Amino acid sequence: MNFALLTAAGGMGGSMLPLILIYVAFFAILYFVMIRPQRKQQKETAKMQNEITGGDWVLLNNGMYGKVVNVINDNLMVEFGVNRGIIIPVRRDQILAKKEPDLTQKIVEDAPEKAPSDAVIGDDLAEDKLDQYDQYLLEKGEKKKKGLFSKKD
């Protein structure tokens, strides 16, 4: 009987090891897939933010571009606007990228114009012959849609 108790107790302790290994593998995968790349990106962003000097163009987190005029501790004096008269202090951690705005106008080619379609006469015409519904529309005009509060004739 003592032998049966020892094997049951030994079996219980051995079953915990695979469970612990699964948890360790899960956290290792989580670390290499999510945590490590995020920390690497945070370090690169912090390095870029610390390398900003006067005269650099920056893109802020809110989507605005500006030119750095002066750097004071963790604040950057950023110049905004067309006339360069607006200077606003911005915290260093609000810089998204060190990037100059692309102010070139892109020429959009005009799409070929479609031939205007007749709104009254439908596409069911063959050689300009009207069907009965098209003739009705031409004579009476478009049907009025009756709403909830419209008067009945």
Rg, Å, rounded: 36 Å
> Which range best describes the helical content: under 10%, 10-25%, 25-40%, 40-55%, 55-70% or over 70%?
25-40%
**General shape:** flat
Q: How many strands, which pairing sense, and closed or not: the largest β-sheet?
A: 5 strands, antiparallel
Distance between the termini: 100 Å
Fraction of residues in β-strands: 15-25%
Decide which structural class fits the backbone.
alpha+beta
Q: Give the count of helical stretches.
A: 2
Order of helices and strands: HEEEEEH
Count of extended strands: 5
Identify low-pLDDT runs: none
Strand order of the largest sheet: 4-3-2-1-5
Give the averaged pLDDT, no decimals.
Answer: 77
Would you kindly provide a written description of the structure presented here, covering whatever features stand out?
The structure is a single chain. The chain is an alpha+beta fold. Helix content is 38%, strand content 18%. It is flat and about 85 Å long.
Briefly say what this structure is.
This protein is of the alpha+beta class and 153 residues long. 38% of the residues lie in helices and 18% in strands.
Task: Describe how the helices and strands are arranged.
Blueprint (H helix, E strand, L loop, with lengths): L1 H49 L6 E4 L4 E8 L2 E6 L5 E6 L3 E3 L34 H9 L13
Antiparallel strand pairs: 1-2, 1-5, 2-3, 3-4
Structural features:
153 residues; alpha+beta
